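To the team - 1,3-dihydroxyacetonephosphate complex, inputs and output below.
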Amino acid sequence: MRKKIVAGNWKMNKTYSEAVPLMYEIKDLLFKSSKSESVIKIIAPPYLYIHDFHETSKGLKNLFIGAQNCAYEESGAYTGEISASMIKSVGANYIIIGHSERRSYYKETHEDLKKKTDITLKHGLTPIFCIGETKEKRESNEHFNVVEAQITDSLFHLSAEEFKKIVLAYEPVWAIGTGLTASSAQAQEMHHFIRSLIEKKYGSGVSSDISILYGGSCNEKNAAELFACPDVDGGLIGGAALKAKEFVEIIHSFPK
Ligand code: 13P
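Output:
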């Protein structure tokens, strides 16, 4: 079943003493809102806070914790890395993989992301796999090719059973943190393209079940229009996820 999902990617923001009250504030607002119960809500804080946040999230329906990255190795002498099994052991259920900031600043390749997806699934966690083109690629009309390659090269080795467990997030790089949002027409066009790629490879049963989130300057003002698109199943939120009220308003933005 296709799910409605809103995930907050906190990126490298908030010290511990800032993060804990924010998490409580979000939880309190969600407690008061019956509207948000059926929406899957995910908070992906820095690794250090996952354990605490998982404890705090208990008792609230459909609230889960995610990590922003993981190592592709199982364990061993990889100084500074965090494994999928460690992430699972502190209570997270989701791992964001292939965020454009990781692709560009840390040079993560399609092959790296394929391995990260595999290890995430192996440990029974859900990858939130990010895809999206740069401004340059959109302007040269190569955006569909870029997104197709990102999906094909890192994900199409999966079986249909495995693929069904993934959540996709289309995040055009030019919209991330820039205040420039894809129009609902641009988002719908790309989400529909992604769903048809999946249909060609895995059939309509899988393609209609996959949740595809939009990310990139999504906020409480534009979320309703984006979430009204037939192929947009929710959002992956950066900046607006760091403000409790705005984040919860985004969660309330699905059509009735
Ligand atoms: P912004 O919402 O700040 O543009 O960030 C989007 C994002 O990168 C979420 O992963």
